[in-house]
Amino acid sequence: MIGGSDTASRRRVLQGVVLLIFALLVGRLAYLQLIDPRYEELARANALRHVVQYPSRGEVFDRNGEYLVQSRACYDLMVIYSDIGRQGFDTARLCAVSGVSREKLVRELGNARLRPRAPRLVTSYLSKEDKLRFDECNFPGFFTVYRTMREYPRKIGGNLLGYVGEVNQDMLKRYPEYRAGDYVGMSGVESSYERLLKGQKGVKIQEIDTHGAIKGSYMEGRYDSLPEPGRYLVSTIDARLQRLGEELMRGKVGAAVAIEPATGEILMMVSSPSYDPDELLGRERGNHYMELLRNRRNPLFNRAVKAKYPPGSTFKLVQGLIGLEEGVLRPSDLHVCHMGYQAGRLKMACHAHASPLDLRYAVATSCNAYFCYVFRDILDNPKYGSVKEGFDVWKEYVESFGFGRKLGSDFLDEGNGYVPDRSFYDRRYRGSWNSLTVLSLSIGQGELGCTPLQLANLACIVANRGYYYIPHIVKEIEGQDSIDRRFYERHYTKVSPKHFEPIVDGMWRGVNIGGTSMGAQLPGLDVCGKTGTAQNPHGRDHSTFLSFAPKDNPRIAISVYVENGGFGASAALPIASLLEEYYLTDTIRRPELLQRMKNMTIYYPSYDR
Fold first, then answer.
1. Which ranges of 431-571 would DSSP assign to H, the alpha helix?
2. Per-residue pLDDT for 556 more than 60?
3. What is the pTM of this model?
4. Which of 90, 168, 381, 492 has its CA at a distance of 20 to 30 angstroms from the CA of residue 274?
5. Rounded CA separation 313/535 (Å)
6. Strand pairing of 233-235 and 60-61?
């Protein structure tokens, strides 16, 4: 009996200890939940929502203060899957209110389920009206975030200004600080100046209840951070000139670039065909983008800075300048032209004009034979040990004019163009070639490839008598005293300024006395110009023209390139002349020519078949 009593006593003691421990645990838990304020804060933290506050993207103005790019309010529809709850929501009503398709909604909810507590983008570009209708419905787990979307009020400059889209994997490599759902400049100015335009994101911490409804700001907004808007840019573009350039190039394939020679500021940059950047915004952007991709004329390709065109006869200016600097040519030197240049069985045809002729007249009449003589004299110069060494010297001169390399403009996707080196011809001709082998280079043909921006820059170099400023598209940045210093530096060619005068005089004579550029004459404006007709293996010849005006103290330099446009004087010259007239006089006094060029359409078998 004594042993049984001891066992019962031990059991009661053990039960008492267990009950005491349980009571202590319950009391501690009650204290933590009901009394200790630290754990109250932690509990509240589980019901906090961190909402990204997106900044307004910086505006872009033209040189006269007119809006080229603006931002307007829109909203993203977001979801946190864990906040939807078992009660669910009215799917049909949400689709009707937000405009999102049922298929897209199901897809995004499936993605959101993988990270149920993380905000997930459902759709973008809700209008203010859409948001008001959404707010009236109180869908659990869904909420909206304020954003801005781009607006291009003048409907110009698609390839110039670029467009904004959602960040992709390629963009994340360039901007590792971005996240899925962020917007980023995809091309043009929007891309080149992305870091200045985008601004800095902020955050707003919200308290929400168990149903996902917003109760207010956490700690009265003490830990919120405001977004910093992006900086505005003042571009170098003249919006009126840009609009006219796009109207004149409509229905044609090519590009037109105008630059202010005294500063390097790009006044106009037209790539044709182009697109309306507004069409690459909003909910239908995907459909519009696919339409642009299917267009065989490739509207998304910025021909002004990326195309490699043969410069044709406009390149004769460079040949003449190199010949003068090298001492193998004097302005008074005469060469004969009997409808072309002939050496043995090789013949380079030319059009009818007086013969013999000097350098000025050769420039004015665009004589092929004259510049064949000059080119061969440069390469065959006895002071160089061989033609190949003479070719190397010629190439160095050409590159000093900005060809065969990027000019360093503020376009991220600027192309190099192409100037062949001696190794190219060594491979092609197994080391056996001479000045006759590469004679097509004398008139801007053969393997030469130039961007329209490089050709407009050549017009600046001649207008400035030997130097240029790097072409650029932005002249002022909010909050900065100046733009990049490289845009203020003069870049000189290897040709002395004194040698430019006979070339300039020849260009002036070609417009105002007699030559291939007579159609560019504008009384009282001393226009200088040079036509170019570039051979095209895929159809009709390309038409090109470069010009500047006035002759002294020039205010505009321009290059126009029209694929399959025929002679330089047929398409490119009248377009350039109308643009120069409009920029210099603020009017056009040749309405019939204006309408004819606007209505000119060209057949492009290589694109349209």
1. 452-463, 500-512
2. yes
3. 0.87
4. 168
5. 10
6. parallel
Nearest to 532 by CA among 520, 523, 521, 524: 520
Amino acid at 298: N
Q: Looking at per-residue confidence, does 76 or 461 come out higher?
A: 461
Beta pairing partners, 525: none
Within 10 angstroms of residue 334's Cβ, the number of other Cβ atoms is 13
179-218 in b/e form (b: 16+ CB < 10 A) is eebbbbbbbbbbbbbbebbbbebeebbbbbeeebeeeeeb
With CA atoms as reference, report the closest residue to 231 among 548, 480, 16, 483. Answer: 480
Token digits for 402? 């900005």
Residue 272: pLDDT above 50?
yes
Q: Where are the beta strands (DSSP E) in 327-456?
A: 340-343, 346-349
Q: Which helix (H) or strand (E) holds 120?
A: strand 120-126
Mean pLDDT, range 490-516, rounded to an integer:
97
Lowest-confidence pick of 13-27, 238-252, 278-292, 517-531: 13-27
In whole angstroms, give the CA distance from residue 200 to residue 177.
11
Distance CA 183, CA 121 (A): 13
Note whether 64 and 141 are within 8 A (CB): no
Give the other-Cβ count within 10 Å of 569's Cβ: 23
Q: How far apart are CA 81 and CA 120, in angstroms?
A: 8
The alpha carbon of 93 is separated from its chain's Cα centroid by a whole number of angstroms, namely 41
270 neighbors 257 (Cβ within 8 angstroms) = yes
More confident residue, 223 or 408: 408
Query: Which pLDDT does position 277 carry in this prediction?
Result: 86
Looking at the chain, how many residues does it have? 609
Distance, CA of 517 to CA of 515 (rounded, Å):
6
